[in-house]
Design a protein that fits this description.
Length: 392
């Protein structure tokens, strides 16, 4: 390499040296700073200073050569390791790479060069004192307040961005749920619906690292979409209110027990008798004996339908699969199955496998060997032995 080729580089470094020495001449704020704490702040606010993680790795290696944890006296903040020693501490980083990051740290004014006449780094001690030649870490002390402020701004920005991303994620979920509700009510949407497209776009954006402006734009668009869908659903429900009985959630209790779909003691089509219905026991007797089921539902149990609905709600909490529950209701009838489940729940801590126990009782019911009346009466007697029809 000729002299003319390296002259521009030397001129640039000389200009940087002049600017950095002006920083060195600034008075210190006094006191000391923890070198590792200031490094953590610098990592948080590194975008303000325009340095990369590799630059800060080199700076961390330089700081580790300072013997104390505190950066105090600016006159004693010059470290003088050789390039090979720095590279060894950087786990074998190539010297050319290390020098490039070192030059970047000097350029942004985080360290200063205090070169000796021959460019070497060393300490000279004499009767007049000591003189250090090497890399000056005093800018970290002099710019500590600036570094802390930049770190705090970066942390605040990161927290605000995290909150914004969380809001967008929740809004995206709400849009998906509302669109599914619209489709379930008969309002089929085209595949290229702009609202669906916006939901897909939001998912792609959240997987990347968008800027704050992109996130705010997406947030505003999702807000508009949510408002539009909610208004549409509210209008549809207002228009249909009063025309369908099931929209008003009107309840009809049928007194004709023979028409009850889930009647317990209907015989099967193949001639196998189902379980006996609670011929002697009333609903109040079942609820008073098996009172635990009332604690797990959010409605009163005043009719047989309420009991069946309560059993449907409690069934997942007891670990009984839906397929098992459907088969049991088909074989025992919904009312007898619900009453049996309420009785099992009453002795839940004493039954190892409620699902298997319920299936075994359903099999006995198909064979005509099970009576829900006897089971409830056994529960009502405090001194009665535990019902162990099946070992489950």
């Amino acid at each position: 390499m000729t002299y003319d080729a390296i002259t521009p580089f030397r001129r640039r470094v000389d200009a940087v040296q002049i600017r950095c020495h002006a920083t060195l001449m600034q008075p210190s704020s006094g006191g000391s700073v923890d070198k590792w704490a200031i490094l953590r702040d610098l990592v948080a606010g590194r975008e303000t200073f325009g340095v990369s993680d590799r630059d800060l790795t080199v700076l961390q290696a330089l700081v580790s050569f300072h013997p104390r944890n505190d950066l105090g006296d600016p006159e004693r903040l010059i470290v003088y390791p050789s390039n090979s020693t720095i590279c060894d501490r950087l786990n074998g980083m190539p010297c050319s790479t290390m020098r490039r990051h070192l030059a970047r740290l000097v350029e942004v004014g985080l360290i200063l060069r205090n070169d000796s006449p021959n460019g070497k780094r060393y300490i000279r001690r004499s009767a007049l004192g000591e003189q250090r030649f090497g890399l000056d870490l005093s800018p970290l002390l002099r710019r500590a307040d600036e570094i802390r402020a930049a770190a705090q701004r970066a942390r605040d920005t990161a927290a605000a961005m995290a909150d914004l991303r969380s809001d967008i994620s929740l809004m995206r979920r709400d849009v998906i749920s509302l669109l599914d509700l619209v489709e379930s009510q008969g309002g089929a949407l085209p595949s290229d619906d702009p609202q669906r497209s916006l939901v897909n776009l939001a998912g792609r954006i959240l997987r990347r690292k968008p800027c704050a402006q992109d996130l705010w734009t997406l947030h505003n668009e999702l807000t508009t979409v949510l408002k539009d869908i909610r208004g549409r659903i509210s209008t549809d429900q207002t228009d249909e209110l009063g025309t369908w009985d099931n929209q008003n959630e009107q309840h009809y209790q049928r007194s004709d027990k023979e028409d009850l779909e889930s009647e317990c003691c209907k015989e099967k089509a193949n001639g196998v008798p189902a379980a006996e219905e609670p011929a002697e026991l009333t609903l109040d007797a079942i609820v008073s004996t098996c009172g635990d089921i009332v604690q797990f539902v959010n409605h009163d149990i005043r009719t047989w339908s309420d009991l069946v609905h309560a059993a449907d709600q409690v069934r997942p909490m007891m670990g009984i699969e839906l397929s098992v529950w459907s088969r049991v209701k088909g074989s025992m009838g919904a009312i007898c199955a619900a009453a049996t489940l309420a009785a099992i729940l009453q002795r839940f801590t004493q039954i190892r496998s409620p699902g298997a126990y319920l299936q075994a009782l359903a099999a006995k019911a198909q064979a005509g060997q099970f009576s829900i009346d006897q089971m409830i009466r056994a529960l009502s007697r405090r001194d009665a032995p535990k019902f162990t029809a099946v070992n489950c």
